[in-house]
Design brief:
By secondary structure, this protein is mostly beta strands. The chain folds into 3 domains: 3-245, no CATH class; 252-368; 384-505, Immunoglobulin-like, CATH 2.60.40.1930. The chain has helices at residues 65-73, 170-178, 265-268, 416-421, and strands at residues 3-7, 10-15, 36-48, 51-62, 83-89, 102-108, 134-136, 139-140, 154-158, 165-168, 188-192, 222-228, 240-245, 270-275, 277-278, 281-282, 293-301, 304-306, 326-332, 335-340, 352-358, 361-368, 384-388, 394-395, 400-409, 432-438, 443-446, 459-461, 464-470, 478-488, 493-505. The strands form 7 sheets. Strands 2, 3, 4, 6, 9, 11 and 12 form a 7-stranded antiparallel sheet that branches. Strands 14, 17, 18, 19, 20, 21 and 22 form a 7-stranded antiparallel sheet that branches. Strand 17 and strand 18 form a beta hairpin. The protein is elongated, with a radius of gyration of 29 Å.
Length: 507
């Protein structure tokens, strides 16, 4: 599982816009329970002694950082530097004009605020906090329109106006988690840039009541941009903080190759894992904890290690040529990873044993069957058939489930001997990604992560490819389908596979 989502814990719109009478402003209005958030700037709707009028609307949004921190402590999301946090907000269509070619600032709020229970976004009749003037009851903003840490900000461009926000805010979130330099989670403020919020200049050279002095502002309007709020009925349109990380386990025990002079050094390395499952869950080896292990390799005699430990070439967990131990590092709870290359002897070994040990104690002995890296006299093409071997018809939102796949070349033709003597091993796909779509409307509930974050890459082990999924990411009472895409090195492109795998999510 390499994706987690945290829905906003509070959000609201604050505004100094005129009410319908174009005399009074909605500065005391609260919109905390509204199903959308609104951001706009209106210039010159009214004229007065201070020139043309300015009307602004801004959004405030907050996420449950305490829950995220607890999940990190529990090991549900990885440590700082191993995960990325994305602010995701979704465009809400409306019948009004939509500005184009504008920028929104996403800025940390510097003061605690109250969401409130207002709904009215048209006539501003629902009063309460937070609003344009007050952060919470009996606590005014230091500055009209909200207090922000302007030194830390993000800028998001909207070319057409209807775009969503998908913004990497990892730096700010990590500071919230650690409360670095008293950097406290009060959420984000979202508003137009100073150059696109409306111009206003007071004769006093200061803010004028609820109107912000802005001498670099625009003399045109940007009306209006809306996002769905956390109160929306649309499950996948709620604003979320999405955490992504690379959780792949790439275990080459069933995909182990001898070194080749034709391959770069990195491609000659193989990964092997020790899985310390105790009563069905992965736990650290008590005497080892998060420390390193050593791994030695032996030839096999009647299924057991024999002779002296094999000499290993430098690379991966091997410091120098002819060392007989490779270092295995801690990967995650109960997982230890060793990367090693093996050079084939004059007489190739058909079976090799890996012995994991530390301080004179042997913790695990495994085995694998190395092969030569295949070579081709022409660019290979693949036509594969995939099945999901453990797919269920329905899942509960409370489930975290592993989806495991069996892959074979469509043209595979086993001999009678092969069929009778093997368990038909699966092909290992070293670069595979999954996506999940809602079948009713083809909505991408989870999109392919084939970019730098690799959050939807499939893991693999001796039993083939798999991924883990927290079913709570999906809206209940709908049918979904899993789609797979494999990377084809021969053409340098991803190829979506024809087989899909459908299931329902039900409470």
């Amino acid at each position: 599982m390499a994706i987690a989502r945290y829905t906003a814990s509070a959000d609201t719109t604050i505004t100094n816009a005129f009410e319908a009478n174009l005399v009074q402003r909605g500065t005391g209005s609260n919109m905390g329970y509204a199903d959308s958030l609104e951001i706009f700037s209106i210039y010159g709707q009214e004229s007065g002694s201070n020139g043309q009028s300015q009307e602004l609307s801004r959004a405030l949004i907050k996420f449950p950082i305490a829950t995220i921190t607890a999940d990190r402590t529990a090991g549900n999301i990885p440590v700082s530097g191993s995960a990325s946090f994305y602010l995701k907000m979704y465009n809400a269509k409306h019948p009004f004009t939509l500005p184009q070619d504008f920028n929104l600032m996403v800025v940390p709020v510097s003061r605690s605020w109250t969401e409130g229970a207002g709904l009215d976004m048209d006539e501003y009749k629902d009063l309460g906090q937070a609003n344009w003037g007050d952060a919470s009851r009996n606590v005014a903003w230091t500055n009209q329109g909200g207090d922000y840490l302007t030194a830390s900000n993000y800028n998001v461009h909207f070319a057409q106006g209807y775009e969503n926000i998908e913004l990497d805010v990892s730096e700010i979130v990590e500071r919230w988690i650690t409360s670095a330099n008293e950097f406290i989670n009060y959420g984000f403020g979202i508003h137009l840039t100073a150059s696109q919020e409306a111009y206003f200049s007071s004769s006093l050279g200061t803010d004028s009541g609820s109107v912000i002095q802005n001498t670099v502002g625009a003399t045109q309007s940007y009306y209006t941009k809306k996002f769905f709020a956390r109160s929306t009925e649309f499950f996948f349109q709620r604003p979320v903080l999405e955490v992504r990380w690379d959780s792949r386990v790439e275990d080459d025990r069933e995909n182990f190759f001898y070194s080749s002079s034709l391959a770069p050094a990195a491609d000659n390395l193989n990964s092997l894992y020790l899985y310390n499952y105790i009563r069905g869950r992965l736990v650290n080896i008590p005497a080892v904890g998060t420390d390193d292990l050593l791994v030695s390799f032996y030839s096999s005699s009647f299924g057991t290690p024999t002779g002296s430990a094999l000499s290993l070439p430098a690379g991966g967990g091997v410091v120098a040529n002819d060392d007989t131990n490779a270092t295995a590092s801690y990967s995650s709870a109960g997982l230890y990873l060793c990367q090693v290359a093996l050079t084939a002897a004059a007489t190739e070994l058909l079976e090799i044993h890996d012995v994991w040990h530390s301080g004179g104690v042997q913790y695990y002995t495994g085995s694998f069957y190395p092969e030569k890296i295949p070579t081709y006299d022409a660019a290979p093409t693949f036509n594969r058939i995939t099945s999901c071997t453990n797919l269920k018809k329905k899942y509960s939102p409370q489930d975290t489930s592993r989806f495991r796949f069996f892959v074979r070349d469509r043209n595979w033709s086993p001999t009678l001997y092969t069929v009778s003597t093997t368990n038909n091993p699966t092909d290992i796909i070293t670069s595979a990604s999954y996506a999940i779509y809602r079948t009713t409307d083809d909505y991408p509930a989870i999109q392919y992560g084939t970019g730098s974050d690799r959050s939807t890459f499939l893991s693999y082990d001796k039993d083939g490819n798999y991924f883990d999924l927290n079913i709570s990411l999906l809206e209940p009472d709908y049918m979904y389908e899993v789609r797979l895409s494999f990377y084809n090195d021969s053409i340098g492109a991803w190829q979506e596979q024809p087989q899909t795998f459908k299931f329902r999510v039900e409470e």
